[in-house]
Amino acid sequence: MTKLILRALAGETLPTPPIWMMRQAGRYLPEYRATRAEAGDFLKLCYNPDLAAEVTLQPIRRFGFDAAILFADILLLPQALGADLWFETGEGPRLSTITTMAGVDALKPADAIHDHLAPVYETVRILARELPAETTLIGFAGAPWTVATYMIGGRGSPDQAAAHALKAADRATFVALIDRITDATVEYLSMQVQAGAEVVKLFDSWAGSLKGQDFTDFAVKPAARIIAALKARHPGLPIIAFPREAGDGYVGFAKATGADCVALDNSVTPEWAAEHVQVDGCVQGNLAPGHMVTGGQALVDETQRVVQAFSKGPHIFNLGHGITPDASPDNVTLMIETVRASG
Ligand code: CP3
Hints:
Blueprint: H1 4-9, H2 30-39, H3 42-46, H4 49-63, E1 67-69, H5 76-81, E2 85-88, E3 92-95, H6 101-105, H7 114-130, E4 136-142, H8 144-153, H9 161-169, H10 171-195, E5 199-204, H11 213-233, E6 239-243, H12 253-257, E7 261-263, H13 270-276, E8 282-287, H14 291-294, H15 296-309, E9 315-319, H16 329-340
Parallel strand pairs: 1-4, 4-5, 5-6, 6-7, 7-8, 8-9
Antiparallel strand pairs: 2-3
The chain binds coproporphyrinogen III.
């Protein structure tokens, strides 16, 4: 096993951490903007396997990252389940909403998603063929809670109020929706693995708003179910879980879910996370994405701090969240050079 990311995920402490970046294919890159314009819009890009593979490869060519992440979106799955999905320019995603049991019952069954998602699987197949031998291919899906927040609210919101309200007012409908998404996510990720994804990552971007028993019931348990089902079908498949802004919920998350690696956002310090999370295995993260905008000595210092803090255990270097459109590609280069010079 030579790929660095796979070695880190297997628990090996490497002299310098392998690197990739959330949203590494994105609007901060002129070549991405050009390909998106060629596709027409963001969703057409996601469903065009040749162009989706092209934008996945762009940051690999430019920066030589150790992993490529499939270019797609967590909201393609709700669309495959029957929700309407569109993107409002400059605002973000919009979906038709589900707030009743009849709405949940009207969703397609988990195994009926594959025709709609066939272009995504084709993108994975192209990438498995075309990626350099040393680059790991990561597939992904949204975690059930995060996907449910969009399906219930019809859009992103800072506090996920609509989803919390449904959970309080009609728990049976809320739980039924979480269960439907959980089952469909197993099918979706399993097909990505069959198509050639070597690692999968579950994005629970809004896990931070689940508190107490809700965190256990709707962040930990669905992830544990998905991970157990995937590992039964694909023994040895490495899985990264990202319960963003979980705070103390990061502690023990890998053990409780069976994840091989926990991805950390930058609201926790790397020193704290090394002591409390990395003790259980590989971690990924967690440089603040803002450094890709501001650059300079602070970028170098904080990059070295993250590398140093996690140097005694398995670590994959990444940002704490996605790189933003106003970031500079030169700052990405500086970050990579700093990480690779740190060994
Ligand atoms: O990381 C990668 O490069 C892989 C591709 C990827 C995208 N979205 C492409 C994308 C991945 C892994 C995602 C995950 C995703 N999508 C999440 C979870 C991770 C996170 O960021 O918290 C969420 C919540 C979504 C839903 C989503 N998609 C939102 C809220 C938005 C709008 C925000 C924005 O940045 O505009 C998107 C759009 C989106 N997904 C873009 C990209 C490159 C920008 C779209 C564009 O090109 O106009």
